[in-house]
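Support request, please re-run this one:
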Amino acid sequence: MRRRVYAPLALALTLSLGTAGCTLSAEVATQKDYEPSDGVGALMGELAIRNVLLISNGDGAANLVMTVVNSGAEDVSLSVQYGDGASRTTGVVDITAVPPRNRIGDDDGTSIVIESDEVAPGGLFPVYFQYGDVPGELLFVPVLDGSLPEYELFVP
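Re-run finished. Output below.
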C-alpha cells in the first residue's frame, strides 16, 4: 500500500528535478552588466563615461567620441591619456556639472584626435581616463571606421 502512495510522489519529484535541473545553476542573463552599444564605458566617482569609441580615417588618425555624464555639483576636468612611455599624450576636457550631458568628439571645441600607427580599424587602443583624486580607468577602446552612416560624420 505504501508503494502506491510514494511511487507517484517519487516519480513527480524526479520529473520536476529532471526538467528544471538545468536552470537551477544557470546564470540569469538579464542581470549581467554589458555595454549596449559599440563602445565601452566606465564609472569613475561622479563621472559616467559612456560609449567610448575611436573613429579612424584609416591613415593613423582617429577621433575620440564619447559621452560623459557628471552627476556631481561641480565642473571637473577629465584627463585623457594615450600612447606609451615618453610619447604619452594628455588631452583635457572640461565636463560641466548636472544637468547637461557632454558629448565629446562631435564638434571642434571638444574633439581629441589621436594620431598613432597603432590606431587601426578593427582593433583596440588603450586610453586612460582620470580626474581629480578619483582613481583612473584604463579602457581598451574599439577602433571603428566611418563606413557606417552613424559614424561617418566623426571621421577626422
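The beta strands are 40-44, 47-56, 61-70, 76-82, 89-95, 101-104, 112-115, 124-131, 134-145. The helical segments are 2-24.
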